[in-house]
Amino acid sequence: MNQLALAIAACWLLLGPALAAAQVSVHFRANAVVTGPRIVLADIAVIHPTGDATEALGQLPVASAPAPGKSKELSVVTVINSLRNRPETADVDWQGSQTIVVERGGLTLTPERMQEMIVAYLRENSAMLPKAEIRLTSVRTPEAMTLPPGALSWKITPSRPGIVGSTSFTIALFVDGRPAGTCTVRGRLEMVAEVLTAATTLHKGDLVTEENVVPQRQDIGGVDGPLLVREEILGKQVARTVPPGTILRSEHIVLPPVIKGGELVKIFARKGPLELSTSGLAKTDGRMGETIPVKNIGSNKMIHCRVNGPGVVFVEF
């Protein structure tokens, strides 16, 4: 062998392995986990050697990702065929598994976590609730949900605006500030508090006294507008007949009339800047702010006037 041939052979022995190592190899994994909505080559394969060129190769998209918490199987042949015409894949040495199972990670929202959210919501909104022992019972939650990965936040809406009496709570979920779904937690909202109840049968028109109402501890979870403070309703009037033991609600109590039917009243009439007064006869009882028929004694005409106070009504022409 001449000197030139020997030199070439020596160079090949020295440089050949380095040249071979410089070829890009893509070794497919059998399993991979992704977090985003698409799968790129670097998610499912190990690429050598490292560098800018191989990094660009690794960012080539190969398929859409499964839904959060789900998986899908990719065929390596299909992946390679989808990349054949990309200049980045020229002379790539494809190796590894023939199929890849790709799983998409995510946040798992368990039924227990959903219930914790509702309990925290009730605690945070305690200021707008009666002073009571509050608990959610007979709870029914959806199955666990898998959400996209990210920062989880939520907004809770009770089935009733004032929370009291609500039988369900809808949780709107957000991941990184973007809507990610909703779920509904159902249950019975128990609220045990001291409320006012009828001590005896209260008839329409009766005045509330300390003797005919009594405080009792009861569950008011399904009661709208329960009355809690006796001093606030003493002297007021019962709007309709209430059986004994009934929890008194705001709709049961009204202010007593400040004008009685048949009572002589003062009518104040206004027309623009001009204001006149005359006497009239109230035809019905009237409470503050109500409009009642009044007979003008001077003209004998019937007019409708607004009750402004005891013995005083107002009309505007």
Tell me about this structure:
It is a single chain. The protein has 5 helices and 22 strands. By secondary structure, it is an alpha+beta fold. The protein folds into 4 domains: 3-105, eubacterium ventriosum atcc domain (eubacterium ventriosum atcc fold, Sandwich); 108-189; 192-254, Alpha-Beta Complex (Type Iii Antifreeze Protein Isoform Hplc 12); 264-316, SH3 type barrels. The model is unreliable at 4-21 (pLDDT under 50).
- Say which CATH homologous superfamily of the largest domain is assigned: eubacterium ventriosum atcc domain
How many strands, what sense, and barrel or not for the largest sheet?
A: 5 strands, antiparallel
- The secondary-structure element order is HEEEHEHEEHEEEHEEEEEEEEEEEEE
Question: Helix tally?
Answer: 5
Number of strands: 22
Shape: elongated
Low-confidence stretches: 4-21
Arithmetic mean pLDDT:
88
How many domains, as an integer?
Answer: 4
Percent range of helical residues? 10-25%
Oligomer: single chain
CATH top level class name of the largest domain: Mainly Beta
CATH architecture of the largest domain: Sandwich
Rg: 40 Å
Tell me what portion of residues adopts beta-strand conformation: 35-45%
What is the CATH topology classification name of the largest domain? eubacterium ventriosum atcc fold
Distance between the termini: 129 Å
Instruction: Assign the structural class, choosing from mainly alpha, mainly beta, alpha/beta, alpha+beta, or little secondary structure.
Output: alpha+beta
